[in-house]
Amino acid sequence: MTHGSQVTTEQVQQALGLVKEPATGRNLADLKLVTDIVVENGTVRIHLDSLTPITTHKQKLERDIRAALDTIGGIEHTVIDMRTKVRPSGSGRTDAQPIPGVRNVIAVASGKGGVGKSTVAVNLAVSLAKAGAKVGLLDADVYGPSMPLMMGVNERPLMRDNKIVPLQAHGVKVMSIGFILDPNKALIWRGPLVAQLINQFLNDVLWEDLDYLVLDLPPGTGDVQLTLVQKIPISGAIIVTTPQDVALADAVKGLKMFQEVKTPILGIVENMSWFQPPGQTERYHIFGEGGGARTAEENGVELLAQVPIEMALREGGDNGLPMSLSEPNSLTAREFMGLAEAVAVQLANQALTKPRKPTIMLKTV
Ligand SMILES: Nc1ncnc2c1ncn2[C@@H]1O[C@H](COP(=O)(O)OP(=O)(O)OP(=O)(O)O)[C@@H](O)[C@H]1O
Ligand SMILES: [Mg+2]
Predict the structure, then answer these.
(1) CA 269 to centroid of chain Cα atoms
(2) Domain span including residue 50
(3) CATH of the domain at 321
């Protein structure tokens, strides 16, 4: 090819513009995802942002970009520089103040205790972080904080600029009320006091820069939970349940609580779906079968994941190394990664249809 017929940036721009972004199905031009194109001696360098940290999506996007450029001809090398740039969702209550630096808050909840909320929260957080997102995990369970044990960190956090610096574990910034309170003193506070504590806690943590903040909520649908979901601008909630009828009934209560406060439900995670003894192919549905799918359908939400009963999952929770990291190729870890991806896709779409309005920061001098 002669220099005279060299590829132009306009040609590249045009070809790229029609490529579809995998999470939203919208094209790169509409989404303004291409930040720079440099054409130099047959080499094309493209800088673009990805709306999610999802590896398979990034790979697909790269393949589609290369295919689109192939139609131009005359390009010897293509260099693609892709950065994850998760956009903030504007969903959730408009009267709740966004947490500084936090783009999306994901609440993990259930009306029922002991169904695996904390286990799901931890494995979701580490899966999102593993995919390359900037992730925080906030243990809002003042009555029985789980994160010190489940994430394997427990120190008194440092202060900077009058704020609490979260601890770091498995690539996730972690903050738990358990880091601050004496674990041996039972907390028998009433709702308003707890809400005040949580509120202060939210405003005083230096998250700095997060794509996703995963919030592990305490069980139930009482005052504490209600205040929490009203105070925090939650982008979406995940409801955890087992397939058992009693758990499902409580899960629906949890779901309704979020709907009442106009918080989108991302979907249901069915935990303890079955047990498959090691080396066997048969699955035992100890808590019943199909409850999660049925409840999801009845309430018009997605069934995001089904997690089996796993000894390793419980052990990972007890020794501070989540199974998503210790056994990344297990069915369970893949199920959690699927959950992380489904959540990232939903939030990317929310950020488009309901972007967060820019807040004007008033600085008093
Ligand atoms: N799929 C599973 N397989 C095996 N053990 C599990 C599974 N899910 C949760 N567990 C274990 O069950 C116990 C309760 O789980 P977890 O603490 O996550 O529930 P929770 O809903 O957060 O409870 P709480 O309501 O007390 O906050 C933990 O010991 C956890 O390790
Ligand atoms: Mg818990």
Answers:
(1) 13
(2) 3-84
(3) 3.40.50.300
Q: Is 307 in the pocket of ligand 1 (CB under 6 A)?
A: yes
- Does some domain include residue 7? yes
Q: Answer whether 179's CB lies under 8 Å from 167's CB.
A: yes
Minimum CA distance residue for ligand 1 atom 29:
314
Number of domains, the chain: 2
Ligand 1 nearest-atom number relative to CA 114: 23
In this prediction, residue 347 carries a pLDDT of 97
Same domain, 233 and 306: yes
Q: Are residues 63 and 111 in the same domain?
A: no
Between CA 70 and CA 261 the distance in angstroms is 50
DSSP string, 262-307: T--EEEEEEEEEEE--TT----B-TT-SSHHHHHHHHTT--EEEEE
Query: Is 123's C-beta closer than 6 angstroms to any atom of ligand 1?
Result: no
For 237-256, the three-class secondary structure string (H helix, E strand, C coil) is EEEEECCCHHHHHHHHHHHH
The residue to which tokens 């950065």 are assigned: 83
Report the C-alpha gap between 177 and 50 in whole angstroms: 34
Q: Give the pLDDT means over successive 10-residue stretches in the chain (365 positions).
A: 69 94 96 95 94 95 95 91 93 76 94 93 98 94 86 93 94 91 62 70 88 92 80 91 91 92 94 94 94 95 97 96 96 97 97 78 55
Note the pLDDT of residue 192.
66
Q: Is 111 in the pocket of ligand 1 (CB under 6 A)?
A: no
C-beta of 116 in contact with ligand 1 (< 6 A): yes
Same structural domain, 79 and 139: no
Q: Are residues 181 and 310 in the same domain?
A: yes
Atom 11, ligand 1: which residue's CA is nearest? 314
What local confidence, expressed as pLDDT, does residue 198 receive? 73
Q: Is 217 in the pocket of ligand 1 (CB under 6 A)?
A: no
- Looking at 84, 119, 153, the residue that finishes a domain is 84
Q: Nearest residue CA, atom 31 of ligand 1?
A: 314
